[in-house]
Amino acid sequence: MNPSHVIPARRCRLATAVALLLAVPVLHAQEASTLDAVQVTAQRKVENIQDVPVSITSVDAEKLELYGSGGADIRFLSARVPSLNIESSYGRAFPRFYIRGLGNTDFDLNASQPVSLVYDEVVQESPLLKGFPLFDLERVEVLRGPQGTLFGRNTPAGVVKFESVRPSREFGGYAKLGLGSDEMVNFEGAVGGALGQRWSARLSALYQRRDDWVDNTLDGAPNEGFEGYDESAVRVQFLYEGDAFEALLNLHRRDLNGTARLFRANIIQPGTNDLVPGFDREKVSLDGVNFSDLETWGANARLRWDFDGLVLHSISGYETAESLNRGDIDGGYGAVFLPDSGPGVIPFASESADGLPDHEQLTQEFRLESDNDGPFNWQAGLFWFREDITIHGFNYDSLAPGNPQAGFAVQQQENTAWAVFASGEYDATDRLKLRGGLRYTRDKKDFAAQVVEGAPFGAPVGGPYRVHTDANDVSWDASVVYAVDEDVNLYARVAKGFRAPSIQGRLLFADPGAPNGGVTTADSEEVISWEAGIKADLWDRRARLGFNLFRYTVDDQQIIAVGGGSNIATLLNADRTVGQGFELDLEAYLADQLLVTLGSSYNDTEIRDDTLAVAPCAACTVTDPLDASGRALIDGNPLPQAPEWVHNLSARYGVPLAGGELYFLTDWAYRSEVNFFLYESREFRGKSSLEGGLRIGYLWNQGDQEVALFGRNITDQERIVGAIDFNNLTGFLNEPRTWGVEFRTRF
């Protein structure tokens, strides 16, 4: 592949020029600070990020502290890493990840995603596990492109990897308390140290709450306000360090109580993607019940044995979740009788809930790796995965007193998968390193769904409707790294990724005449990705640059068609999808006390399927051509929730003051327009977004004590970030501006 064909050459020159121009002032800095090496585990071992032939962004603890100042959940990483977008129609409970445009907009609790989330070496498969709060972390690594060889489980788009701070023998910890607008409280802390000659431990905890900041203007409604939450999480780790054996044990739990995603009917001005005139984000008029309850907990054991020239790893994981999430999906049906504050005409009422009463995930990995000083090193292993889930779907009649139940369906699925994998690296010369790997995966699913109580607009009572899938695949990757000198590496990589078949059974929203009760299946998808780039430490390590070009093709991409006039969710396979672009990571000291980081990415995605058509909305202005049945032809459309441009910028400036340091820290994240659905329309296209944060703080006692003022979304930007494809223009919004003060101490 010739990388110059990936995107127009002028865009490559522009990106390179921007990077160089921003870094040039470093040449003139006098006695500037230098950047520490960034250690990552993207290849399942500790390496300098500059030596790894993968497009990676590592987010350190200080950045995570900045982004999470306002009590935000994991979605705060969205657009703050090149090519990364995160959104949710569940609020804090169910984040959906997209890397290089590849993701899954499916809102079913059985949905699989092509971006894998790995927390302390254990994959979090259920979408409800992926929102575990970020606290007491050493770093977050975002790996772009297929990672199927070493991580395996549904990684054709990439991996978001979290590493908790490990226990140490030295006693220490921290405590942090933030207070802010809307009665926000944000506490987190950790304490740890030695328990004996061989054992040490670390206890970490988080508590967050915020009052409702949206008022319900409908008299007598079940909820008086919305958007508040109460969340807590805890993690305890025990570390045993023997002469040739190490054991790291981890227990963790999360509890979330709050309101579900707030849907607002008819907030989009017809024929545009503007909010309707006079829109007030602090008021709604809803007649339905709204809440979100989630409890997850898990445990894992990471064991390591050191032999002569070999290291054996065992990683055992257990995760479980229980949840119930209920929302007024139509956005306020009963409020049509309030002309001053109601949402306008809504064709039909819809209030629903999804519950996960039973969930269990078990994983086991054994990995053997060489440990020698020779030119060739390798890893090989076995992986086993099992997940059992039960999903309850409910519908309610919000027009009847008490919002009684009017529909109930059950989904059950058993998913078992196993894999065998191997990878190796060879130092062909002092400057040239070759890497490659293979993974064989076998994935089986047994699915059954039935309608116990029929909803007025869904499938009638019936079932069970059964589906069995059995798929296997060989994923692989090959890469080369060439060291131009000790500070500059060139690399190229080609990789194949795979996602096993998916099954969808939202029967309460299925066509009454649909085959198999409305249960649909999408076949396996496969990705081939090409990537080439440069990683460099510049100007005596005062600047660090990463830049790459990429192109990928997806065969039989799994997509979900939702909504339309009958509000049906259907799994489909697109014949082919193509994506291409570039990514830039730059970090530089422009002066001794001024550190600037810049991230940028361009993603051009296109669905290529001449015959694929989906049901469009009835209340919006569709711009795609329609087939004879009135369905929208989506050939040539970009993927949903896939912005072409993502930029992020941060700057930290410190001033020595009174034996401490006064610092100013700001960050900005931009993403361009996005489609909310597979088809294109004027209304369901999210505007470009630019959100900024600010933190002004004072550090003293060698940085162990800190007080800071912070603001998130400081311009109070108001954007529609997602929609519900009913017969009305229902959308949901980004978080409003928050302000606060934070105190922190380390000991």
TrEMBL record:
InterPro entries in the record: Beta-barrel_TonB (IPR000531), Beta-barrel_TonB_sf (IPR036942), Plug_dom (IPR012910), TonB-dep_rcpt-like (IPR039426)
Subcellular location: Cell outer membrane
Region forming the signal peptide: 1-29
UniProt keyword annotations, A-Z: Cell outer membrane, Ion transport, Iron, Iron transport, Membrane, Receptor, Signal, TonB box, Transmembrane, Transmembrane beta strand, Transport
GO BP annotations listed: iron ion transport
KW Iron (keyword) present: yes
A family per Pfam: Plug
Membrane-protein topology: Multi-pass membrane protein
Family: Belongs to the TonB-dependent receptor family.
PANTHER family, alphabetized: FERRICHROME IRON RECEPTOR-RELATED, TONB-DEPENDENT OUTER MEMBRANE RECEPTOR
Protein name stated in the entry: Iron complex outermembrane receptor protein
Organism: Pseudoxanthomonas taiwanensis J19
Organism phylogeny: Bacteria, Pseudomonadati, Pseudomonadota, Gammaproteobacteria, Lysobacterales
